[in-house]
Amino acid sequence: MMIARGVVIAVLAIALLAGSFLLIRDWLDPFHLPRGDWRLFKRNFVAPDGRVVDTGNGNTSHSEGQGYGLLIAVAFNDRTTFDRMWAWTQKNLQIRPKDKLLAWRWKPDEKGGGAVPDSNNASDGDLLVAWALFRAHQLWGDYRHRQASQQILADLARRDVLKTGQGTLLLPGTEGFVKEEAMTLNPSYYVFPALVALANAFPGTPWKDVEKSGYALIEKARFGSWRLTPDWVLAGEPMRISPEFPPLFGYNAVRIPLYLGWHNPRSRLMQPFARFWRQFKPRTVVPATVNLETDVFGADPALPGMRAVAVFTMACAENQHLTVRALPVLKKEESYFSASLNLLTKIAIRESFGHK
Q: What is the pTM for the complete model shown?
């Protein structure tokens, strides 16, 4: 009895020492991703079945959100949560009969279930999920993840990538974005670190050309006093703000400098975004949106996650060093989108300024 008790005490002591070592290691590493952030994200936004819940939009779910969740799960080496999210995505969004692309939105109903009201895809959601699957294969070595990634990418290239006189363009979705006069594009759908990684992994695919067209799009689509890229543009000569959407730099386009810096923190394309955010002094209200036709700020303040992107952008543009620890931890009251941006920015900092 005494021997058994001694063994238990010894095991507990070893566990405590191991835990202390991990805590010390994490404290010493300024690029460590905070485990508390991931626990809070899962508690607030990941349902038991693996559905990532957009708490700011009627608790709907999107291919984009599933992509964010899958990427973050890989970054935190959480295979269990990844598998649940991917299983839910396959069952509920990968339901289109003619391809492996994902329906862009799933809406809950009053009976506790839900359905897809619109089977059109969102190309950024497809790209994010495919990239997350590819990274999962790199980390865990399960070839099924790589195969699923390739299937999504093959159909995305076939259905949503167009070669035009303005380059190889990525449509926002399969349906509704090409008209006789022009194409409607969303510059924030160009997830540059994904495009680069997938082009290198799968030679002969169009992702390198899509990457180049994305840079050109951002270079040309600049409006307002701060020369910012809008949420939606009408591709053409000249480039115009899409008349079908509000003329804003806001909740969509805020991701552009995040994706630019994630791949290349020294990209000159980040400069206009940095100049815009630099005008706001610390602890002052930063607007979430600005009208690029009138230069008028929107009434809503930027989400904490948007401010995290701003900090990252200014550090990149000013060639300053930045650590994950420099950003605040997630707050329990943060919305899904804010929390997603916060965690994605920390991953980008870790991979751009720290270590792969």
A: 0.92
